[in-house]
């Protein structure tokens, strides 16, 4: 028996700063992915506001705060109505008013919040407007265990290794990856999959926000680091990709990286200076 999971990837084009339009569009695209058979649906980084912080500046925090409840409620409703798990990435407000996290909020297929992950490695202007996260949770769904790393987080192998050690079988990467670093996108996704022998699902924005060009090319890598599906470049798209989580155990019996790890000689990795 296989453990097939249908992953709905939404390669989204936002209107910069127009939260209501972006959220309404996302609801329609989530429905589209569900109609195509998706079990888990993923939106890219900061889909609700757009990403270009050079233009938005403080407005990214203002919009995130103003529209947090609106966006949250619409995403919860979309997950419930379409009976899908949903990973929705937008500015999150937690316990302290006025503090915004660049987060992915996870809803189950009844619209209940399972938790959230806040981007822990903040890229460039991110750190001016967002508070960094400090945990890597793993979510236990009826379709398997998964973790999340947002965009720049993927460049840090420790993030994926932490999630793997907590039991993740697949890791989702909502992103707003710029075209100048397209070569790094191509390298990081298969690298992180092979190093940890799991599925990596990179979900990249498409769109041009003045000087920021996000190119799409969302992709899925299997536990051997092979790209098994790729969405188009410079085009919005909604596609469903079937993966078989039994391949995780299969390849972990064939590849010895995890079995032959020697944590006792890696102390420099966690040394704080």
TrEMBL record:
Q: What are the residue boundaries of the CN hydrolase domain, all occurrences included?
A: 5-245
Instruction: Fetch the InterPro entries from UniProt.
Output: Aliph_Amidase/BUP, C-N_Hydrolase, C-N_Hydrolase_sf, UPF0012_CS
State if Hydrolase is listed as a keyword: yes
Enzyme group, top EC level? hydrolase
Going by the UniProt record, its keywords in alphabetical order are: Hydrolase
Q: Which domain of life is it from?
A: Bacteria
Coiled coil, from the record: none
Keyword Transcription regulation recorded: no
E.C. no: 3.5.1.6
Q: Name one GO molecular function term.
A: beta-ureidopropionase activity
Sequence similarity: Belongs to the carbon-nitrogen hydrolase superfamily. NIT1/NIT2 family.
Name listed for the protein in its UniProt record: Hydrolase, carbon-nitrogen family
Q: Which organism is it from?
A: Peptoniphilus duerdenii ATCC BAA-1640
Native organism taxonomy: Bacteria, Bacillati, Bacillota, Tissierellia, Tissierellales
